[in-house]
Amino acid sequence: MATKTAIDKLDTAIEKILAEYEGEVTENMGEIVQRIGKAGVSALRQESKEKFNGTGKYAKGWKSETLTSRLGTTVIIYNQTPGLPHLLENGHAKRGGGRVAGVPHISTVEEEIIADFEKEVTEKL
How wide is the angle at C-alpha 118 spanned by C-alphas 115 and 122, nearest 5°? Predict the structure, then answer.
C-alpha cells in the first residue's frame, strides 16, 4: 500500500522501514540457523554410525549449542569426546609406526549444511 510522505520526513520513513526489515531478517536467520544446526547434528550422528561400526558412543556424542547475541544467532556443533573427531577425520600416527588413514565424515556433512543454509537464506530473503 502506497502512502504519501513529505520529503522532509523521508529519511525517518526509510529508517522505520529498514528497522522493520532488519527485525524480520534477524528473526528468520535465527530460525534458519537453529534448524540447520539440528539437521547438522542428526546428519553427523547418522554419518558417524555408518562410517564407524562400533557401539555408537561416538555418534551419540554429537551436540549443538545455540548462542544468541546482539549480532545474531550462532550454532556450535561439537562432539563430547574432544580430539577424537579430528583424529578420525584426518587420520593419525600409530603407536608402532605408520599412519591410520582418515575417514572424511565431518567435511561432507559440513558441505551439505553450508549448501542448505545458503539455499534457505536465499529463499527467505
Answer: 140
End-to-end CA distance of the chain: 20
Res. 55: pLDDT tops 80: no
Q: What span, in angstroms and rounded, lies between the C-alpha atoms of 105 and 85?
A: 9
Distance separating alpha carbons of residues 43 and 39, to the nearest angstrom? 6
Contacts 24+ apart (CB under 8 A), 23-27: 25/125, 26/72
- Integer Cα distance of 97 and 24 in angstroms: 56
Kindly tell me the number of DSSP H helices and DSSP E strands found in the chain. 4, 4
**Contact of 29 with 121, CB cutoff 8 Å:** yes
CA distance 50 to 37: 20
113 vs 10, more confident: 113
| Residue 1 scores a pLDDT above 60 | no
Amino acid occupying residue 51:
K
Domain ranges within the chain, ordered by starting residue: 7-124
